[in-house]
Amino acid sequence: MLAVTANYDITWEKLPDDFVLDNEPVDNINQPSLAAALTESLESAKKLSPNALTTTNYGICATLNQKMVVKAPDWGYVPSIRVPREEVKRSYTPRLQGDIPLVVMEFLSDTERGEYSNKPTYPPGKWFFYERILEVPNYVIFEPDSGEIEFYQLNDSGLYQLQEPDADNRYWIAQMSLFLGVWQETRENRIGNWLRWWDEDGQLLLWGVERAERLAAQLRAAGIEPEI
What we know:
Order of helices and strands: EEHEEEEEEHEEEEEEH
CATH class of the domain at 2-16 and 28-164: Alpha Beta
Number of strands: 14
Oligomer: single chain
CATH topology of the domain at 2-16 and 28-164: tt1808, chain A
Mean pLDDT: 89
């Protein structure tokens, strides 16, 4: 499949089997936990369809001017893939294998990782890749230590525009019918800021342990001691 953006030819091709992916470890111990928490609450609330794909430091591909580009956001959400899951084990190519990601997220760390890079030449920067090549409608940059969110959405000109939070300090993602915000909590022995989901009625999407604790409290209130 072929698209043209300005002077750039974009094709959607499967990652070659002999393509060497970057195997460097993540540079922040919190990144895997933050990503897993986002996915878990979606699964627990049955907000993931059978064909949905969530990614964590996982290659998303496009070919720019006949050169393969692979970027691995810290977390991403694809509403539907159209190929068997075994075909997207190493990487995912939008349009060819399924939908464009609705959301990509980057978690800031002490190491400069180029989340704001608008570099158009090969290899393109992350910002340019998400905005101009993939055209991901929602881009989130999260600073875990401070809990600050930068939430960008594509405007009518196809460029990212910084959004303001609502009165509850949350951001509405219409394509998912969910709000995204920050919650201070302890999880996996980490005390700090977590990205959380709320539904359109303002109800927090719970993690599995929170659901279990709530059920146990309900049983105790009914005079039933839950089994541990």
